[in-house]
Amino acid sequence: MFRKLLLSAIVIVIGHTLSAQSPTFNLIFQDNFKGEEIDTASWSKIPRGRSDWNRHMSSDSSLYKVENDMLTLYGRVNEDSTLNDTAPYITGGVYTKGKKMIVYGKVEVSAKFKDAQGTWPAIWMLPMDERWPYGGEIDIMEHLNYDTFIYQTIHTNYTYNLGQKENPPSHGVAPINPGEFNVYGVELLPDKIVFYVNGVETFMYPKIEGLQDELQYPFGEAPFYLLIDMQIGGDWVGQPNPEDYPSWMEIDWIKMYELVE
Q1: What's the whole-model pTM score?
Q2: CATH number for the domain including 229?
């Protein structure tokens, strides 16, 4: 009897300890993609840039579809001369920049994608009005080609310019259910960033107390916004095979929470 009581007491203590350590979040934004149009109060189309990830971005309507409670973003060969666009491929992407953002909190996205050689769908976060990589970058999910896993990565001045990618490790990989919806999540906390796939913790990046370089953990200053986009080609993913296209990413829903202090 004493042993049973002791075990019960231990379980209760552990439960209270874990509960006390678990952060509390408040839902501040959710999109289930009802209707037939992107909600422009929450999302903007990502403009084209010069980097590998955004050099094929386009606002062409053929790359965006809201239907059956789903947002679909496409990547395709650019064969439409009426676009007056010389890019060999065009891709769709949306972000919440200046509209829906968090400093500390949690983000979850339910998504699946059609694999293709050279395709690079991503779900990630950037800070407002901060020069890269000093403000940080949080890659919740990046998928390459036909891989059965995804990459989850932190970029900062410490990891990129100073090359400190292993102290602590700044990246991890996680298996997914290929061809199915998976829930990709991240928690931004004062002392760590925790990544999840389907509710299971897959990678954690901690703040190192006392480190001389304060940019090892530049999180907690600027608010971060969410990006969801198709990407094609580049040094990392390799050359695309045009026979594999069009490709796409379907987003079932997204949720954004703020940390309750």
Answers
A1: 0.91
A2: 2.60.120.200
